[in-house]
Input
Amino acid sequence: MIEITLGSALIYYFASHALETKKKPADTVYYSEVLDSRTDSFARYHREEVRIKPALENQFRGIVRQAYDYSCGSAALTTVLNGYVGTNLTEQQTMEGLLRFGEYNRIVERRSFSLLDMKRFVTALGYESGGYKGEFSDLVKQQQPAIVPISYAGFKHFVVYKAYKDGRVYVADPALGNISFDQERFKQIWENNTLFLINVPTEQRKDMLALQDADMRHVDDATINRYALVDAQFINPDQMNKFADKASTMRRVIDQDTNSSTYGQPITNFMRLYYKSK
Output
């Protein structure tokens, strides 16, 4: 009797495990549903494999998320270089290139990158590029990613224009991810109708910034503002400054603070990069 029971248990174990010989991927789940409740048979249940991804992964699909305080410009440029031109750069590498080939002293003075800095770095990489002014129709006609400055929710910001479809403008935002604006709203926040384009041979262009089904969602102003507040309201300003300093570019300068114990001596200063219209 013991032999029969043990044999039955072994048969059941090997039969149930023989159906799945491959290791399950980490992002795979399975669900089962009844095919026909009237039929009590082995084929009564249907089991299907479903691959899932975190929402944040899709939200920032194809985007180099800005890792530095107010460094949307370098993140936007890296996004275009990687997703359209086909490079494989980090934001830090792009920032170093902008500082090296751009107007370093002016960057330090104004604490921001200009489109001229971007053009010089892109030229050093071997590509033609330039900043232009045009109408909304000109932006759409390009049919390629473009870096555009916007003024939104009290901030000046660089984003990447991806595409226009059915009255909506889809952009890659280094801070918020893949979002979209109503056409008229985008025209209101588009700063000076300025755009920055990189000329890439057709056969070399990448499609990481191409519009996908997942992008067909409408995000209104209130939602974006709420996300911005959620990201900021739980962070102590002092702690935020420490994070920003840690991530910023360091440089050696002479301490000009007369109340400082290191006045007149070389100190390490943290240079954060901002976008300014002037």
